[in-house]
Amino acid sequence: MNCCKIKIIKMKTGFVLSLFTLFIVMACNMVTEKNKETNSPDISKAAERDDLSKDTIYNSKNLIIVRLSAHTYQHISFLNTNDFGRVSCNGMLVLKDNRAIVFDTPADDESSEELIKYVNQNLKSTIIAIIPTHFHDDCVGGMQAFNKHKIQSYASNKTIQFLKNKGNKYASLMKGFEDSLTLNVGKEKVIAQYFGEGHTKDNIIGYFPADSSMFGGCLIQELDATKGNLEDANTIEWPFTVLKLKRGFPNTTIIIPGHGKSGGKELLDYTETLFK
């Protein structure tokens, strides 16, 4: 009799435990499905947005890519320097109709390979030009990678000469221009232009009229920045060059400096005041 009671009790206990386990599993599944609904992005809505302002679309230890407007991207890489430590370096990527133009290479070949791969595979576009904005390493450090992929490089004649003086072997492969260059990316124009001396004697800027976006390069400082590397600078002409730039492209709304955070016209005003 006692044995029977024990068996019945065990059966009841087992049944209760089974029900409890089933309840826990069902509850966990409900929570998981709820989390999926909450955390999963609405891809269809994201694809319809044409103003993905300041969206980081790629982030690795070597390279960050940020979408600033419909067709303008900021690429950020890192350069190890003796005087300033590990410095973040900006460039601009303009993309339209599956074609792309890059201003300034990322800091080295490894990060440049990442950028090229991402544009090709993820953005489904072909880079048709690389344009360094001056001769310093933060603009041309990844030239080997771009040359490896047979991407045509363009630079001002001043930049090409400075690179040749430094013994840069890729300088002779660049197509030169005097004061301005206009290329087409899809059906839109991209402009590279020289306004005068500042950070260096050869610093140019990049401008994409369709987005009113500008890559100021090291000619333009981020807000609250110090004057930075002045080794090759003309600090007397610098504010006047920025003033000419402001007058040349008065409708600019997006500005990427050579280092630091992007912004608007306030970056031009700040840089002009900094060197007055």
What can you see in these coordinates?
The protein has 8 helices and 13 strands. With 276 residues, it is an alpha+beta fold. It has 2 domains: 2-40; 51-274, Metallo-beta-lactamase, Chain A (4-Layer Sandwich), CATH 3.60.15. The strands form 3 sheets. A 6-stranded mixed β-sheet has the order 1-2-3-4-5-6, covered by helices on one side. The protein has a 5-stranded mixed β-sheet with strand order 9-10-11-12-13, with no helix packed on it. Helix 7 (238-248) packs antiparallel against helix 8. The relative contact order is 0.11. Residues 1-53 have low confidence and may be disordered.
Strand order of the largest sheet: 1-2-3-4-5-6
Total number of helices: 8
CATH homologous superfamily label of the largest domain? Ribonuclease Z/Hydroxyacylglutathione hydrolase-like
SSE order, one letter for each helix or strand: HHEEEEEHEHHEHEEEEEHEH
Q: How does CATH name the architecture of the largest domain?
A: 4-Layer Sandwich
Shape by Cα distribution: globular
The whole-number mean of residue pLDDT values reads: 86
Strand tally: 13
What is the gyration radius calculated from CA atoms? 27 Å
Q: Describe the largest sheet.
A: 6 strands, mixed
Query: How many structural domains?
Result: 2
> Helix/strand-derived class?
alpha+beta
Q: What's the end-to-end separation, in Å? A: 103 Å
In the CATH scheme, what's the topology name of the largest domain?
Metallo-beta-lactamase, Chain A
Which residue ranges are poorly predicted, with pLDDT under 50 across at least 5 consecutive positions?
Answer: 1-53
User: In percent terms, what proportion of residues is strand?
Assistant: 25-35%
